[in-house]
Amino acid sequence: MYRQYKSSEEANTKSTKMASKKAASSPTLKYIIFLGSTREGRLGERVSKFVSNHLTKKGKYDISVFDPGVMKFDMLKKPLHFYKDRSEAPEWLQEANEQIKKADGFLLISCEYNHCIPPALANMLDHFPGSSFSWRPSAIITYSPGIYGGMRAAMQLRAMTGELGCISVSNIFGVPEVHKAIDSDGVPQNDHMEKDNDIDKELRY
Ligand SMILES: Cc1cc2nc3c(=O)[nH]c(=O)nc-3n(C[C@H](O)[C@H](O)[C@H](O)COP(=O)(O)O)c2cc1C
Question: Are 74 and 89 in contact (CB under 8 A)?
Fold first, then answer.
């Protein structure tokens, strides 16, 4: 889908045939992980490390992490797209937006707070216009220390990614009992984590 969009954009200057050839031969895809927790002692960090390592070792992806525990997201005061002149927005926010615009896809790593999307994740995404995300796929990865793996938040993220225009791929990867499934360095502790994890296959469509 995104390839088609990219191709039609490029068709203004080159032939459609040439553009789709270029997209098909693109060696590295840029993905952004959005990490959804700022909580002290958060388990989300190990999930992010696992996903990042899992994809990086395939040698086809360039992975960056948007971490609301490190980046300067306040509780939303002014989204980037609410600035009349976007050059007046904080520089880091403009740069983050450029990075989103250049990405080939997104991975949302989310826990579940009161059966909802955690506020740190929604708050971070709300800083950017939907147009920065649109026409690219996203993957939802949820986790919890319990047995449901954060699936209720995953369902809500489906709706949110639809609104942002980066609709999630079919496969939602849920990690139940995350504290047992992945250690603090992001190393998987059971077969399910590696064998059943084909999220990138769908993200590449
Ligand atoms: C405010 C709050 C609400 C929570 N609600 C749920 C919930 O609805 N479902 C669930 O499975 N776990 C819930 N939990 C437990 C979280 O799944 C668990 O704390 C998990 O480690 C959160 O991810 P994090 O460590 O990356 O912040 C909740 C935790 C908090 C702090």
Answer: no
**Ligand 1 nearest-atom number relative to CA 146:** 11
Q: Structure tokens of 30?
A: 């840029």
- Nearest CA residue ID for atom 21, ligand 1: 43
Domain boundaries, the chain: 29-70+89-203
pLDDT at residue 201 in the model: 83
Reduced to 3 states (helix: H, G, I; strand: E, B; else coil), residue 110 is strand
- Tell me which amino acid residue 45 is: E
Neighbours of 132 (CB within 10 A): 21
pTM score, whole prediction: 0.89
How many whole angstroms from its chain centre is CA 176?
20
CA of 82 to the centre of ligand 1 (A): 31
Q: What is the DSSP string of 123-185?
A: HHHHTS-GGGTTTS-EEEEEE-SSSSTTHHHHHHHHHHHHHHT-PBPS--EEESSHHHHB-TT
* 29-70+89-203 has CATH 3.40.50.300 classification: no
Dist. CA 173 → ligand 1 center (Å): 17
Task: Return d(Cα 134, Cα 128) in angstroms, integer.
Answer: 11
Mean pLDDT, each 10-residue run in order, the chain (205 residues)? 47 46 67 98 97 92 97 96 97 98 97 98 98 97 97 98 96 95 95 77 78
Which atom of ligand 1 sits closest to the CA of residue 39?
27
SS3 65: strand
